[in-house]
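Quick one:
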Amino acid sequence: MDIADLQIFATVARLGSMRKAGEELNTVQSNITARIRTLEENLGTSLFERHHRGVKLSAAGQRLLPYYERLAHLMGEARQATLDDGIPKGPLKIGSQETTAALRISPVLAKFLRQYPDVDLNLRTETTANLIGSVLDHKLDGAFVCGPVNHPNLTASPCFSEELAIYGPPDMTSIAEQCDDTRLRIVVMNAGCQYRFMLEDFLTRLGRKNVPVLEFGTLETVINCVSAGLGITMLPRALLAHINRIGPVSLHALPASCAHVETVFIQHKDALPTSARTALFQTIQNHWDDVNADDDRHSRQAAPNASLRVIS
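Output:
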């Protein structure tokens, strides 16, 4: 068994077909079939179940596939380590919640790319749960997610604290009144959205359990549905200006005890500390140290905003 055999195995598993794997790997189907058969003989077990439409992984094949993915990742890291001369460059994949991307991280990424133009930065927006999974699977080099994050294979570095608020239809007068409405619905991003869990917990403490949930794929759709009166959502208060450009909503402050959430930058503990990754992390730390210092100065100088009713 060698890495080339495992690559063929993984390609067949992904495509579900020996023929398609041969086409992708630029070889004849008979060669693919022979290599898979030899691999199965060496391992003493069948890796695929054959059917008239192609093949699918057997139980043994499902157990083997993650080992190939780990080996492929290590091979990629070995190549990166060999080519890394200390100058940040090459691919760098970063994830973020959509709200954080829209509101917070553009300046830090712009600053990073101005300083390191040879880095090929890719940003992907997902829910917190999906981003954590992608970092654990080494599909992302790091991600901005809703904290706290406690996992033995991840490091989590605090970036900033976000004030949350309830957004409702334009005619919504209070959260308490909305909770009394039997038609109450939660409107959120797709499954895995941390704000959804926090909103459900908040409503439970107000006596509303198992509130129906409407899930959508984009922030714009969520806001359009809230604006149309389909339900309420929980999002950062600082998004208000951005949200008002999408559709009219009402904003309702939360009690101080549950109004704040920390955004953290997570990385895999075993990830290769490439020059690009190290430079990005240092840029993030420096940027948010400066931002948080400015926020502290402004909060001491600004008068409290009493325009919103805080419910308890």
